[in-house]
Amino acid sequence: MAVKIRLQRHGKKNFAFYHIVVADTRAPRDGRFIEQIGSYNPNTDPATIILDSDRALAWLNVGAQTSLVTRRILSYEGVLLRKHLQTGVAKGALTQEEADRKFADWKAQRDAKINAKKEGIAKDKAAAAKAAADAEAKVNQERAEALAKKKAEAEEAARAAAEAAAAEKAAQEAAAAAEAAGAETAENTEA
Length: 191
Hints:
Shape: rod-shaped
Strand order of the largest sheet: 4-3-2-1-5
Helix content: 55-70%
Number of domains: 2
Number of helices: 4
């Protein structure tokens, strides 16, 4: 029986996640499997991978083949490197301590790279949020200035209307006073 380590699709349309399974090559993609050894969620950034690397290494050591994507996942998690180092130990090319040290160094570098990516994503997200807040503050300030300008224009128009009304009232009073003075002089001349 040929055994393959491959992905089994789950989730919903346009939002899939996968189980990493060991299955017979003749079994359907989402059908029977021998063992589930992890999961892979490409919807997150960076992708979330949960893997039982010891079980994956055990299956590789007994001859299980991998699909292309699972080969990349196992390489990313260091399972293929561990298999390579174990082969070197078995051949006597290096000791178990050297193999463990090489794997620990590789894992430290990988973890540093992942953390740098996560920090970069967080920094970019914070910068985008700050830029959006600055843009919103600018728009709000422009709106406030426009409202203040409109209010000042309305106050100026009201003041001009009040001055015009006062001038008209003064003109009416002056005309009324002139009429009254004209009427008085007419009475004085008649008398």
